[in-house]
Design goal:
2 copies of one chain form a homodimer. Chain A starts with 6 loop residues before the first strand and ends in a 92-residue tail after the last helix. Helix content of chain A is 26%, strand content 19%. In chain A, β11 and β12 form a beta hairpin. Chain A is built from 9 helices and 16 strands. In chain A, α1 runs parallel beside α6 and α3 packs across α9. Chain A is globular. Chain A is of the alpha/beta class.
């Protein structure tokens, strides 16, 4: 190491690598620590970019962030490919949401109505229109809807591309385990360690196991369907993600467990639901079963921003089921925060401070006292630039740094050495 | 190589290795050729020793051989363990045969009646007795029967044990591919190459694909059941083989295909049937999926004995679903044939000559002209020593040696150099 880096990123998954890339583009000296880049949750993930299909009741703020990030994906993928020559498998055929039985369809329609009600583009399809789009769907699939703007990318292509882009922009990868934040030395440390963030920061990030099966179309051809298909099959939620190279990802369980064993029951449920929706999958090769650990949080939303009581430490974790879709917005906003020391309003609902425990004597601000939630429709409706949370307090298992008021911004502004760097496309945060 | 070996065995699966062991015990110089010992069908096989449960309509002669070989298994396993110190996982808890639905049970009962009718020990069990034996069976399993004498062994332990035994007895392994029988030079060549026998000999051995799933009891313990369980579940035949180390083998498909791809549909069907019969398996880890190619034959029976038109060449292939159970009897009888030049009557129904095409001018003997079938009850009821089939004729794709009468025995008698060698236990061929 020639000199103390400006930024140390802990974790070389998509989020960490994209942050490293964006920071290096701004001319910062960046080091990324990871003994095994890209082997965490992203290696198992299907790569759906699905703010519409993943818009659930009671998660409006998360939906806003997902929507904002999905809108950045076309330019993000194009820029990444331009920088590296790597095709990251970004596909825009859209997503079909289907129900196998009448009960499945009724359940799905409740959600579609909610999604339409908050302005998301869900288009119900007549059965004939559904089959026109995907003739391979089982005849007994009762109905469906199109989320044309829910796209996909291949995480196993994305990670090498991001790594190459970050390294070409000047970032350095260090293949070492970080057991405590004191292991790294930089002006700003970004913890993008997925589930590993819990031990490093004390943040309430917990592993949420997901099991996934990978199939391959026989004969080396492309799968016999083009859309991402998500559905319920006899009550079992399942998704099917077709890749151009013949792979089909079938996922995923959501289990409150911390092991990565693949269970017979999970594979059975996934395959049964998959074959019920798309019978031809029975003839596909089963090429991989895997389990990964998503970094879950108490409110299912990511944790993005300054770590209370730890000046110079930022969190970028807790992305749960949404790490791939949230990669662009996370990278952009965290890089901005590193450079300017000021948090974009989009980050406000996701601040680590929302999980800070109240101080015994003098209650610290909790989530309710933070700036109001960013509206789904984007910055125009959001509150002004978020003040950095203060006073910062220590969190649960923070390995060092007691409670106390932080003098000045938690994140020291780091001057960019190379001016603006490559233009980061401006995307509207509204859904269109 | 010091001198021309007495016996060259092509194929180091269980059959080839056991033949090599038996021949080496007789004092013969033995070389076994295989680039990858034990990686063929036996690596996938479950290792059921099931002459009763596998006794099917119209296969009386095969049932007789299965029964004779299963009766040799206790002594064979004991001798192998004594010779090598390897526990081959021979277990004698017996096999439960069950039906999930009323239809499944009706189908199973037809077969049990046939098996009982030919004197095999099948004991129908009341549902309460069934559950006393295996409390983990699904409550909706309608009924079952016990085949107490159908045991199991672990093929992945068996192969290394046989290899060690053969080598300790003096056999040499040569890790080379044999592409034609002219590649090997020995007084007698034994083709024990499974599906590979077709290309080497022209015999009608075809690959019959079998897919198998391996589970493991969670927590490192033994499975929650002790018997081999075979059954029908909504028409799907399945078997579940528990190992002491926690493994459970779930098998198997029977497909007329020559690829070893694992298909989603096969894994789905196997897991569904397995979990239907034994619900706790859903919680087991799925640790392996695999496909192997059984060496099938036109009449489902093995091909054992002198190759017509190829003096000094013996076949020991075509064991199809029964390679593991048939290993002891195959090894004993082929070794006898090598040493004495005379075929045991038990071999008569399985001679390669039964597939010899008739000669254009003068019809050659076909299977119907061979000595009558060995009775199930063993040698006492079998015809006297079988004459070697003659005149020998060439078979389909034999790479050399045109049709013609062979002068003298097809297999030259090879004198044993060390007298009797280690005692091979005498087993009664009757079932008890």
């Amino acid at each position: 190491m020639l000199s103390r880096p400006d930024v140390a990123v802990v974790g070389a998954g998509p989020v960490g690598l994209a942050i490293a890339w964006r920071c290096a583009q701004r001319g910062l000296r960046v080091v990324v620590h990871d003994p095994a880049p890209g082997t965490g949750a992203s290696h198992v993930a299907a790569g759906m970019l699905a703010p519409v299909a993943e818009a659930y009741f009671g998660e409006r703020e998360l939906t806003g962030l997902l929507t904002a990030s999905a809108a950045r994906w076309p330019a993000f993928a194009a820029e990444l490919t331009a920088a590296t020559g790597v095709d990251v498998g970004y596909r825009t055929e859209g997503t079909l949401m289907v129900g196998l039985t009448a009960d499945d369809l009724a359940e799905a329609r409740r959600l579609w109505a909610y999604q339409q009600g908050i302005g998301l583009p869900v288009t119900p399809l007549r059965p004939s229109a559904l089959r026109d789009r995907e003739p391979a769907l089982a005849p007994r699939v009762r109905g469906g809807a199109l989320a044309a703007t829910d796209h996909q990318v291949d995480p196993r292509r994305l990670v090498p591309a991001l790594r190459a882009a970050a390294e070409r922009a000047g970032a350095t990868l260090v293949p070492a385990v970080v057991r405590a934040l004191s292991d790294v030395d930089a002006r700003v440390t970004v913890v993008a360690a997925g589930c590993g963030a819990a031990a490093l920061t004390g943040l309430p990030v917990r592993p949420v196991k997901g099991q996934v099966v990978r199939l391959r179309a026989p004969g080396g051809g492309a799968p016999g369907f083009r859309h991402v298909i998500r559905g319920y099959a006899d009550g079992e939620p399942v998704y099917l993600v077709p890749r151009a190279d013949g792979e089909v990802v079938v996922g995923a369980t959501v289990e409150e467990r911390a092991d990565t064993d693949v269970s017979a029951g999970a594979v059975l449920r996934l395959l049964r639901a998959a074959v019920d929706l798309l019978p031809e999958l029975a003839e596909y090769d089963l090429v991989e079963t895997a389990a990964g650990l998503r970094p879950g949080t108490p409110d299912n939303a990511p944790i993005l921003g300054p770590l209370p009581g730890r000046p110079g430490v930022l969190a970028a974790t807790g992305h749960h089921r949404h790490g791939i879709v949230l990669t662009p917005v996370t990278a952009d906003l965290i890089a901005d925060l590193v450079v300017t020391g000021t948090a974009d309003p989009l980050l406000a609902p996701f601040t680590p401070a929302r999980f800070a425990p109240p101080e015994p004597a003098e209650p610290a601000p909790d989530a309710a006292a933070l700036p109001g939630p960013a509206a789904v429709s984007g910055p125009a409706a959001a509150p002004g630039p978020a003040a950095l949370p203060g006073p910062a307090v220590s969190v649960g298992r923070a390995p060092s740094g007691g409670p106390g008021v932080v003098a000045g911004p938690v994140v020291p502004a780091v001057e960019s050495r190379s001016g603006a760097g490559p233009a980061v496309p401006e995307e509207e945060h509204t859904w269109n």
